[in-house]
């Protein structure tokens, strides 16, 4: 009997890629989306069901979780993310979900760590204490965020801006996170384990700019900006103040070289090396 796997946050960077890769397996994929319209592109994938899901609405959660065997638990970065995660875990318990794969973040286990890590650790604990078998995935920052947050300025100015100095970061391609998620979802060997996932190397943003330039055939510059300028920009885009401060703390960790760790987990779990930033830049060059 085909298993049903619910992926929450299915239109996000990682969720979308997990749904895509799971659709090639012998499972039924239920893609949890904020609205059917945003999940329209996922409907074309084989074996994928679309379900609207409101993390704060018990009726919505009950419908989304009906007959679900396994859960990929992804929550958005928001002011009430802890409550959202708690609601999802509680519904998983009620509906006797057999296994949870939680998308966390690199550094979630650090003490004292940064605020983003502490939030993720709190959400990990909800899963660990649920009584449901689980695996925790802790990826580094996503390469695809360069597309999401920097593509516009690269297209218009051939520049991108972050307050990270010369700090090196081991960004990971979301395609590799998804490949690991599929591996652990379809196996019984990873229960109770936590995996820290990175790309194959740590690069400075200057080096990333150079590789983006090689991929696009134009000169691209990285501009290190003061933290206050980054704060103003984030607030101007209506990012809630607590989230702004948490993001700036992450950037400060990047700047201090605290996100340069490289692990072998992707290679060990999938049997192939993770995408390099150069490969990512080549594959996504049209975005820039």
UniProtKB/TrEMBL annotation:
PANTHER family: PRESTALK A DIFFERENTIATION PROTEIN A, PTHR43162. SUPFAM superfamilies: NAD(P)-binding Rossmann-fold domains (SSF51735). Residues 2-256 form the NmrA-like domain. InterPro entries: Ergot_Alk_Oxidoreductase (IPR051604), NAD(P)-bd_dom_sf (IPR036291), NmrA-like (IPR008030). Gene3D superfamilies: NAD(P)-binding Rossmann-like Domain, UDP-galactose 4-epimerase, domain 1. It holds the Pfam family NmrA. This is Uncharacterized protein YbjT (DUF2867 family). Signal peptide: none annotated.
